[in-house]
Amino acid sequence: MIKVGIPRSLLYYSYFPLWRAFFTEMGAEVVVSPETNKAILDAGLRSALDETCLPVKLFFGHVLALTGSVDYLLVPRLISVEPKAYICPKFMGLPDMLRARIPNLPPLIDVAVDFSRGTGNWENVLSSMGRLLAGDRRLIRQACRSAQAAQSLFQEQLEKGWLLPEALNGASGERGTERPAPPSPGSGRLNIALLGHDYNIYDEYISMNLIKRLRSMGARVATADLVSQAVIDEQAGTLPKKLFWTLGKKMIGAAFAFCDSGQFDGIIYVSSFGCGPESLVGELLARWVKRRRGIPFMLLTIDEHSGAAGLVTRLEAFTDMLLRREKG
Amino acid sequence: MKITYPHMGNLYIAIRALLLKLGLDPVLPPPTSRKTALLGVRHAPEFACFPLKLNLGNFLEAREMGADTVLMGGGIGPCRFGYYAEVQREILADLGVSMEMVVLEPPSGDWATFKTRTRSLVGDCSWWQVLKAIRFAWYKARAVDALESKLLYLRPRLCEPLQLEAIYREALRRVDMAENRRGLDLAVSDFLKDTRGLPGKSGDLLRVGLVGEIFTVLDPYANYDIERHLGLLGVEVTRSIFLSEWINEHLFGGLLHVGGLDHLKEAASPYLNAFVGGHGRETVGATVHFARQGYDGVVQVAPFTCMPEIVAHSVLPAVTRDHGIPTLSFYLDEQSGVAGIVTRLEAFVDLLEARRKKRLKEGV
Fold first, then answer.
1. Domain A190-327, what fold?
2. Which chain B positions have a beta carbon within 8 Å of A269's beta carbon?
């Protein structure tokens, strides 16, 4: 059986159900790299360029964890997943960066994903990937359908309030089996909106268990995944100039929606050191949130040197401040 | 309307010519200085790239001189430059500085918006006058490029580079002042004439290509005068991109067919096979190009956290491996120090010299 490796990093958090269902249906075995640990991070730090951001370094680590044990490595060239917006230059150059810096890579499935001109869709992308595995056309079509079904189920669960890792685990279950009810968002006195790219906030190692820590401090945590794409588009559409980064749009759209709902006591924004788009998006958000609602806003920047003690101190200070504000 | 615009090397000369010909009243910010940088850094986001901070400093300094409108470039990503103006506008608003932002963007399909935006800027000028103004500004940019490339060529070759620089500054001033094409041509040809008789040095020169993000390549403040330091170390520097090429590509949307950068994009393959925003692909292509031309080394410059250049830098080791060309990358921001940069340049030049000697000995 052909083994296709998927690094547990970057857009794994957005598209794993799609990719997993597709390759499984194609008759391949999907191998995911282990959850982030120190060895993976260290391997990434050694092979990636110092100047890149933490998530890209971590991606290198996850790739290295798979090298040698898989026949193909799935590293799509993610240029754009919607018209007139990009992900990030580093995502666009990911396959090239890996090839230049990691010797003895397995063959990469590096089909370009570019919907920026309004043409192209996942079906075409998946078909091109399928042809690399030399599958026949009917099989590819069928695999495409299951893949898209799996992905829409995943989206549905997110909008119903599943936390992304829970929905991802759900995606590995068999279709048709009974789904558990959406887990509760945690009980607590504070409602906190946690914003940040999926690959930062849901990676327990590099986010230092941020979500669990917040919950244990008595906060109910909501993330941008709760907000539907339509609402994000509508909210982000109010900007004077269209934002051309998909992930930034999601952050801004969700933040505005959270502000408008009036249900949140504070917003925590997680960004990785050296993230280009976030350096501007985070700045704009801080200014706009202040002007719109005056909701307390905290920017947390994480990198490979972050220590849990520093994080905890800041979280405690922030939640204390929110509680005092509530009393006043 | 008193209109100002950010500095980027000698770009001010072309833009001033354009605005004057359009009958506007430009306010040139003082040359970018430590004060400009500090002003920008104080108010700009910490991790924004260096040019955004310097631009902001320029605007605030121009404001003190009475400017009320800012002319800024734009773009449609994924490089951050396309969103600079939006961020700068919000910062100025929160500072209580009322300056209007006029953003020039490449006409990407939406001609109607482009037309109204341009019309609001040019007032009563006829389109013919606008066209003439743009053309004149273009010639100024070409004249600046001619002077700069000659300066880069001559600096390591002459016994008195400081004298050359004085002549260059005078020629630049004449280009800036010139009111017609004849004046421009004269300024350039006089520069060539005046520098011809200067005593030169003999010997083989090291040649280094300068690649990277356009602002840091073109702006001597942002790159801490890297071209000059290399020149004074006796190295001939060749730039991968000049002002007029950037103007054509970025502001005219590549309308002029004057030998664009397409050959560099092709040369970037197989190391970097896709557009990655900014000039990332051109950086890789230019490095390959310089290697093929027998250059001794390549220096890359970029603002700290510049995404496209980080991608380019990531693949450069593969270019070095295949083409045997040493590269040195600098990430620049307000924290950079000139002594550190010069030390690294000296070490790099020493390495290039040693390499060349070794090659000569081996008869390669």
1. Rossmann fold (3.40.50)
2. none
